[in-house]
Design goal:
Belongs to the MntP (TC 9.B.29) family. By secondary structure, the protein is mainly α. It has one domain (about 5-184). It is about 85% helix and about 0% strand.
Length: about 180
Amino acid sequence: MSTSTIGELISLLFMAIALGMDAFSVSLGAGMQKIRLKRIAIVGIVIGLFHMIMPFLGIVVGQAISTRIGDFTTLVGGLVLVGIGTQMLLSAFNHESRQVIHTAGFGLLIFALSVSIDSFSVGLSLGISGVKTALALLMFGAASMVLTWAGMLLGRKVHGLLGVYSEILGGSILFGFGLHIIFG
């Protein structure tokens, strides 16, 4: 392996971890709800797939449209997380025991889309840079899947320690992360 290939692998690994950190943060908040281990595994896989699909779509769309769309997708992703976080905070004070982030069906797709939408804009730039696309997509998917699992499992442990306050903490994490995405 040449030095340039190793350098490219290392930079792709760091990029994959950076892209997966939003999935970790959001999954930390989501894991504070009562979610079974089987569902956590499925959520991680779906988010990993979305972290492969979104950059791929970004590559395809990036060849046809200007890069201005990247700012719009980031804003939408941030607004979705702020909305979910707000809903979690409000339901914590509403004293109703219900799951705010739905980790099955359409809710899972919206959840996965909200944490992977920023990778769409990364895909826009990947198509231009000439990076090994298949390797990058696999690394993005694997890193986000593992980080999602780690976040949800850690959130699950914190829920056991904090009890009813875990939903407030989880909602605050999602809300704050959404604001961070919007305002950078």
